[in-house]
Amino acid sequence: MKRQLVAVAALAATLLGAAACGSNDDDSPTTSASGPVDGKGKTLKVWLMVDAQSAWKGVVDDASKRFTAATGAQVNVEYQQWANHLTKLDATLAGSDVPDVVELGNTEFPKYVFSQAFAAINPGDYENSGTWLAGLKGACDFEGKTYCVPYYAGARVLIYRTDLFKSAGIAAAPKSYDEFLADADKLQVASKSDTKFGAVYMPGQYWYSAMSWVKAGGGEIAKQDGGKWAGQLSQPASVQGLQKWVDLVKKYSKADPTKNENDQAGIFAQGQAGMFYGNAWELGAAEQIKKDPNDPNSALVDTKVKGKLAAAPMPDVPSFLGGSNLGVTEKSQNKELAAQWVKYFTDSTSMAGLIKANALPNSTALLDKAATDNPAIAPSALAAKSSWFTPNAEKWADVEKGNVLQTMLTDIITGKKSVADGAKWADDQINSTLNES
Amino acid sequence: MSVVESPTTRRTGGSTPHRAPRRATRSRRSRPGAATPWLLAIPTLILLAGLLGYPLVRMVVLSFQNMRLRELISGRTPPWVGFDNYTKVLTDSVFWTVVGRTVGFTVVCVVVSVVIGLGIALLMRRVAYGVRMLMVVAMMFVWALPQLVAAQIFRWITDSDFGVLNYVLDKVPGLNYQNHSWFVNPWQGWAVITTLVVWAGVPFLAITLNAGLTQVPKELVEAATVDGATPWQVLRNITLPILKPLLTIVTTLSVIWDFGLFTQNWALRDGHPEPVYQTLATYSYTQAFGQSRYSLGSAISVITVLLMLGVMAFYIRQMFKIGEVD
C-alpha cells in the first residue's frame, strides 16, 4: 500500500515536472550580433569541420584574433570529422555543456533548425547578408526566421587530364554535353590498350552527381504540395536524366558501382581515368597527397597526375551547391558572443581568406571577385551561379542517412532494377521519410 | 560452519535421500548469517544494476515513447505512444527481412565456424608439439586482432580498385576480376562478411575445443580402437559425447555473437550498409542514430533482446548444468 503511494507520488512529480518544462520552449528572442558585448574571462567553444583546419586555419585564427580584440573573450576551436560529427553533436546537444557555435553541412541544417537546436539570428547584423547564396541560406530559414549564417560553398566541376586530352586530339574543355560525350569517346579510343582505363571516373553511389543530371533534364528530387512532400524521381523528366547518367556510367566508367565519391580524387590520381566530376579543391587533392594522411601538418607528395589536371564547368549540367553554415546553439550560455564571432568569421575579410584557400564565398556578390582573384576556383565560381539544392525539408537529412538515393543508383547501374522501377522505389522511400510525423 | 555450499561439503553429504533433511536443519541454524551472501554480493549487484539495469530500463521506457531529435535536444519528456513503435516495427516487412537475414547468417556462420573449429582442434591433437604451438600462436594473433581492424583489412583486400584479392584472381588465366566489386552481388558480399566472421571466430573455438579434447581419456579411445572401432565411430561415440557440454556452450556463445553482428558489415560497407547488408544490430543503429528515431530503434533492440532470450536462457541453463556435473 505504502509502496503504491510512493509510486503514484513519483509519477505525479514526473508529470508535473514535464508539464513545467513543456511550457517555456517556443519563441526565444532573436540573438543580436550588433552592439558591444563584454566577454572578458569567457571562452567560446566553436566546432568547425576539419576542412577549416586543413585548408584555411589562418582565416579562423585571424577572425578569432579580431573577435578577441573587440570583446575580450577567448575562442577555443575544436575540429570535427565528417564521418561521425552528427552522432557526436546529437549526444552533446542532449547534455548541457554544448559548443556555442557549430558548423554543419547545408543539407544537414534543416533537421536541426526544425528540432530547435539553433538560436534565431538577425541577418542584418552580418556582412553581405543581402546576397547570401540561396542554396546555403535556404537551409537556415524556418517559419520566417533565420537560424544560421552561410559560411562557404563548393560547386562541382569537370576535372580532366590535359595530357590525355592533348594526345587524343582534344583542344579545349567541352562546351556542351554532346561535346563532352564525344571527348569521352576520343579518350576511350586513345587508351584502348589499357583495359583498366575508363574515360570518366564516376562511382555508382555518387548521388550529388546523378541528381545533377536529373536537374539538367528538368527533373526534381521531391517537391512540396499542400504541406506534403512528393518524390519526383519517377516523373518522366527525372527518369530521362537518370537514364542519361546511367548510360554515361555504364559506357565510360570503370568505378565500383557500390562506392561513393569520398575517395575519388585518390583513385583518379592512379591515372586510370580521363575525367571526373568533383569539387574544385579535389583537383589539388588528386595532384598532391599528404605523406601521412593522419597528420594535418604532414608534407605533400606529388601523384602521377601532378601538373596534368585542369577544371572547367560541367557543360549543360547544373551543380549541386554544397557548403556549410554556422549556427549559434540554442543551449549556448554566450549566444551574443557566439553571434559576434560568427560575424567576424563570415565578414568580407574572412571571405577573402577563404577565396585564397580555394573555397567559394557565401555571397553571390563575391563570386565574380572570387573568379578574378583566384583563377583556380573560377570554374566552380561559374558553376555555382547555375546550381541546385536538395529539397528544403526538415527530414531530408534522414533520406541521405537512409541511403535511399545511393541504393537506388547501385540497383540501377548493376541492372538489379530498371531506371523506372528504381526511381519508383526511391520515391516511395522519400515520401514515407519526408512525410513521417 | 560454512554458509556457502562448497562442492566439498556437498560431496561429503553422500547420496541424495540424506541431503534433504540435512539442508533443512542447516538452513534453520544459519538464519542469523543469511544476509552475509547478499552483503558480499551488493557491490556487484549495484554495479550490474547501474551498468546494465539502468540502460535496459531506459531502453524499454524509450520504446514506449516517441523520442526524436527535438525531444533529445530540449530534454522534454517525449510523448507516450504505447505500443505504436512495436506495431510499426512488427508490421514492417523490411524488419522481417532483416530478421530473416540475421537468422540465416547466424545459422550459416555458426555451423561453418564450429565445424572448422572442431576440425582444427582435432588436428591439433594429432600434430607434433611444435606444430601445435605454432598453430596456437597463429590463432592467438587472429584472436587478438580487434574486430574493427580485421574488418578494415578485409575491406582493403576486397577493394575493387586497389584490392589484392582482385589482383591475385585476375592473374589466374581465364578469370577477369579487374575492378570487380564484391558487394554488388549480395551473395558474394555476404560470403566476404561470413569469411571474416568465421576467420575471426575460429581461434576461440579451436583453442577451447582443443582444451576440451585433452579431457578425453586416452584409454577409452585405445580400448575402442582395439575393439575395432573406426576413427569416425570413435569421434561420434566417444569424443563428441565427452565434448558435448563444452560444444554446447561454445556453440551458444557463437550464436549470441554472430546474431549481434555489427562491426564487420558496418566497416566493410564503410559505415553505410545498403539494405541487403543490414542486420538487426545495424538496422536498429541506423534507425536510432542515423535517422534520429531513437524510440523506434529502442523497440527494435527490445525485440532483438526478446528473440535472443531463448538462446540466453538455454546458455545459462547449460552453464548451471555443467557446474552440477563437476
TrEMBL record, chain A:
- Per the similarity annotation, which family is this? Belongs to the bacterial solute-binding protein 1 family.
User: Which species?
Assistant: Paractinoplanes ferrugineus
**What is the designated name of this protein?**
Sugar ABC transporter substrate-binding protein
Source superkingdom = Bacteria
GO annotation, cellular component aspect:
ATP-binding cassette (ABC) transporter complex, substrate-binding subunit-containing
* InterPro entries xrefs: SBP (IPR006059)
Instruction: List, in alphabetical order, the GO biological process terms annotated in this UniProt record.
Output: maltodextrin transmembrane transport; maltose transport
Among the Pfam families in the record, one is: SBP_bac_8
Q: Which UniProt keywords apply?
A: Signal, Transport
> Is the keyword Signal assigned to this protein?
yes
Q: What GO molecular-function term can you cite, just one?
A: maltose binding
User: Signal peptide location in the record?
Assistant: 1-20
From TrEMBL, chain B:
| Predominant subcellular localization, coarse grouping | membrane
- Keyword Transmembrane helix listed: yes
Q: Where is the ABC transmembrane type-1 domain?
A: 99-315
For the region Disordered, what residue ranges are annotated?
A: 1-31
Q: Residue spans with biased composition (Basic residues)?
A: 19-31
The family database entries (SUPFAM superfamilies) matched by this protein are listed as: MetI-like
Entry membrane topology: Multi-pass membrane protein
**Tell me, what is an example of a GO biological process annotation in this record?**
transmembrane transport
The residue ranges crossing the membrane are 38-57, 103-124, 136-157, 187-209, 294-316
**Comp. bias regions, Polar residues:** 1-14
Where does it reside?
Cell membrane
- InterPro entries on file: MetI-like, MetI-like_sf, UgpAE/MalFG_permease
Write the record's keywords in alphabetical order, separated by commas.
Answer: Cell membrane, Membrane, Transmembrane, Transmembrane helix, Transport
- According to UniProt, the name of this protein is Sugar ABC transporter permease
| Annotated source species | Paractinoplanes ferrugineus
